[in-house]
Please model this.
Amino acid sequence: MGSNSLYGPLDPAPDAGYPDAPPRMGFFTDTSVCIGCKACEVACKEWNGVPDDGFDLLGSSYDNTGGLSANSWRHVAFIEQPAVDALAAAGTTGPQFLGMPGKDLPGRTLDAPRTDFRWLMMSNVCKHCTHAGCLDVCPTGALFRTEFGTVVVQEDICNGCGYCVPACPYGVIDRREDDGRAWKCTLCYDRIGDGLTPACAQACPTQSIQYGELDELRGRARERVERLRGQGVTEARLYGHDPEDGVGGDGAFFLLLDEPEVYGLPPDPVVSTRDLPAMWKRAGLAGLAMAAAVAVSFLGGRS
Amino acid sequence: MSPKGSRGDRPMVPPADFRSYYGRPVVRPAVWTHDVAAYLFTGGLAAGSALLAAGGDATGRPALRRAGRTTALGALLASTYFLVADLGRPERFHHMLRVAKPTSPMSMGTWILSAFGAAAGVSAVAEAAPLLPAPVGRLITPLGTAGQYAAAATAPALATYTAVLLSGTATPSWHAAYPDLPFVFAGSALASGAGVGLLGAPVSQAGPARRMAVLGAALELYGAHRVETSKGILSEPYTQGRPGRLLRAGRALTALGVAGALLGRRSRVVSGLSGLSLLAASLATRFGIFEGGMASARDPKYTVVPQRERLARRAAAD
Model:
């Protein structure tokens, strides 16, 4: 283990023991061009043989998937909210349902009343963290770091202990109910080894999901966010791109148009194993207190 | 509303203002059932009983030794059952033994429990030495003694690693409690072990169990007080609803058990009842801590608000 093995900037594959690791691969999901078509959700299910997660109308938006789960490894979030100017004017925050949009094409009916709102759409996925809580706490070795720096579950090893589920700071990995094992995005480990693009990125019609070498994607993302800001989209920001953040940077990072929590993402995730040495120290102290209490109990009295 | 409002009877904490995705949780609550909460109790009970047995044997109190050894084995078997039953693939329980992984508290716990289990198992079997053929009995008695001390040496780790197990997650109120949770669990384990002594030994031998009850209760109450008051908004889940009721019940039962242990010195019945009270207290406390964490994971408020506060503090520092 290196000095940053639990926390801090790190190239995960060499740290995990791959001496000649290929470049770290990842996703850059640019939500500013997402059209909410859910082709990524479908392609992922098709390629990976992910089971149906039930026909469940959630009634809150066009999103009837709800979130990432054992049976949804890509999830398209839909947020309907007043446009940024209206938001600022009203001084309100939070998603609001403003009715269905008109059936007509925008601009076809001149002077038609238009509500001033926008849709945010975002295809969420496993972040393939540099410091992956799920991987750190897995007691069987079922979760492992691949040579591409991604995090994958071995389904023949996982015994369904479920520890990875609460360990993920993003709430991604999940145990499948009828199967008992933990499942999540593999970044199409069975495709990228053959030089193919992961199914979701391949299917994305707008290049909202971009796959490639993480270093290159980070550069591309920086340019994109600058260009958007130059065009007046001042709320554009990157999420998960920073190797100095609480998980050492994400292998799958995002360009967002609002605060992360609006999309269901944690605003400042930290891998819980960062505090592992401190946690064991406190446990050791409590253990010593316990031993001392027993010694006092048996040696300290008359009866 | 101003914090110094005109009503002025107490400082008003403004309602937490935060945004979320349709109120859905950000982190995922553990998929564990109450089997795991029950294991927190039985694991602690096994540890406390093993310590009781070792102390009893070392100071010539055979009733404490006997009660401690047998309860340790019973609690250990129950623990193993709860842990295996809660797996998604119970038939693969042995996959835990493929690796020893320092970054995984569950892996460390597996090995602690295995070491403890072997030692406590031998020492409990040795209790049956008089019933076994003489040569076997002569062989197993010293083994049992060795096992008893080995189990006692492992017991503090067994009692406290479960705190690291819960804290090592992104479950907000479990993680925030990491400095104090080991003390809750250590104290709770001692108190339940003391309860076994009070139940299983005549009053003439139960003196150490009474002192163990007092010290265990003190540790547990101190830790629980810290968990319930010093974590800001993340203390809240431990004080509300079912977890709040369970933790309050645990506190009341602990107080009752300690009072009975101290006042019932001459009565086997009062001692036994206080022992039962301490065991029930430990059970309630473990379920309260378990459910408090689960509640904190289900409400996005407990993930978003503390992280926002952390970002604001960092921005203010820059």
